Protein 1
Amino acid sequence: AGCSSLKNVTIPEGVSEIGEGAFSFCSLKSVIIPESVTEIGNSAFWENRELKTIHYGGTKETWRAIEKGTEWDGFTGSYTVYCTDGEIKK
């Protein structure tokens, strides 16, 4: 959290949870999230106003099934989640 120089991050395959506040107050533009992630904690990507793309290793259905905490993407701009079977826009 708080790493203003962090622009891109790739979550390794096998990770199942992105913790609360993990990438809050960073300057992320893109994130790669594997299908193994089943939970994204509260405020995990809070205040990443430059976020434009999330590349997700699963389908739109599995993306929607991820347990997402309160305000997990609070104060982000418009971004697109690219899934294996299409896109989801915020």
Note: Residues 59 and 85 are 6 Å apart (CA to CA).
Protein 2
Amino acid sequence: SGRIEEERPTRQVRLAIDRGVNYVDTAWPYHGGESEPFLGRALADGYRERVKLATKLPSWLVKTADDLDRFLDAQLRKLNTSRIDYYLLHSLSGTSWDKLVALGVVDFLNRAKAAGKIVNAGFSCHGTLPEFKRIVDAYPWEFCQIQFNFLDIEHQAGEAGLQYAAAKGLGVVVMQPLRGGTLGQASPPPSIGALWSEAATLRTPAEWALRWVWNHPEVIVALSGMNEESQVEENLAIADQAQANSLTEAELALIARVRKQYREIMKVGCTGCGYCDPCPKGVGIAGCFDIYNQLYMYRNPAAKFFYVVRLGGFISGQRGYASQCEQCGDCVMKCPQNLEIPALLEKVAAEFEGEGLQEREAMAKGFLGVA
């Protein structure tokens, strides 16, 4: 359900703004389409003018050139505002970017900026590093948004993408700094907790993860999801102290050991480098393994749902399920980790594509607003 209990979340949003938060992020599909209207109400009483507001064009729903303006105008109404300070093309890949270009997205962005409907144009990306670089170079963006945390330094855009975008003058907004909350769990896997306990200065796993992201001077904003007032307070306190280049060599070495230990306890030792792409049958190999690891490493109950959201083709337009593998062996020859990819994909398919797959696909369509 997309239903939002209004009173407490409104207090939480306003508490964060009163304490100094000045960037608020939402998107068309969040909370079943209810996030933007909720935020429009929560930012009443003068709060809208105290923040930079970010939302995202649902790229996968755009079928015609007219859809570009239709979605933006609807979002302005939902958010009860005359402008979007930071407007992103949501979840681009190379394929979806090319589709939008063919529909005139460059002209659309220029017109919307000239009209004052958009202040800064950007995009979010879960694609490979080469795709990310190509999109960075294709338009004079002001900013971009990437997944980045101490475990995903080579995953998707990764650290190389962060540095590439910053060198081109883009502000970089980081999503998943805690990897969906998994890196911030108060009770991490025992071998990880043992390493954190060796630190000269003891910190929570969430603080280590956020400090590592903010240690990078290229990062302008870290988007950290918060459900409890205590999480708001903790994140604000960490943000108040964390500075770029503030971690010591010993602390960075400890984080590197934690990263190595996480990778050792992963079900699949995939780094997300993308060397196996493209699969002749369209399998999203790195995505399959990433979600498989999430299910087992972090006991993430939502992993089976996100498998469908990410690989069902509803966003990218190309289904990438593990079961599409025909064991041609092309990926095995390319893999730097020497993984037996087809055999591993069989395990992924058995885990994620059995009972309940159609129900999860229906839920994903509802979540994304796909007909």
Note: The chain has a mean pLDDT of 92.
